[in-house]
Amino acid sequence: MKLTFLGTRCEIEARTRRHRMHSSMLVSYRSARVMIDCGLDWLGKFKRLRPSAIVLTHAHPDHAWGLKNGAPCPVYAPEKIWQTLQIGSIKERTPTKISGILFEAFPVEHSILAPAVGYRVSAGHARISTRRISSSFTIARQRSKACRFTSATAQP
């Protein structure tokens, strides 16, 4: 499994080239490319990433509004987020296979107005957990030898 940090900016001004895109991560395993979160900066920029699916942590503009005009692939989120955005649903605490990668949503505290989740992600022998804290993803690595972490600056 390979993790690529595509953006780490929340609702603040872009200050550097590496910190200019809204928070997003790409989980790659074999031919699968699942994007976690898709903020407004990603609107119309899916061609380069070619995601096979998108999963969302919550419905804030910097995490979900890149989907305003739809998506080129299936989009998944827990029921609470689906109600806000009107997209496909994932049951919390129930493993869901997306493009061959296993995602399990679990509740995290972020905002009363926008319920949020973290994800346990499993592919092959690699497992990670994600949760949102301020402007960057926090990753709890498990069996980290099976997982590569990278950072990429996405071009518009």
In terms of DSSP E residues, the strand content is 35-45%
Briefly, what CATH class? Alpha Beta
- Uncertain parts: 133-144, 151-156
**Proportion in helices:** under 10%
CATH topology: Metallo-beta-lactamase, Chain A
CATH H-level superfamily: Ribonuclease Z/Hydroxyacylglutathione hydrolase-like
Query: Quick one: biggest sheet?
Result: 7 strands, mixed
Q: What is the end-to-end distance?
A: 25 Å
Q: What's the tally of helices?
A: 3
β-strand number: 12
Structural class: mainly beta
What does this entry look like structurally?
By secondary structure, the protein is mainly β. The protein has one domain: Metallo-beta-lactamase, Chain A, CATH 3.60.15. It is built from 3 helices and 12 strands. Strands 6-5-4-3-2-1-12 form a 7-stranded mixed β-sheet. A 5-stranded antiparallel β-sheet has the order 7-8-9-10-11, with no helix packed on it. Strand 7 and strand 8 (101-108) form a beta hairpin. The chain is globular. The two termini are 25 Å apart.
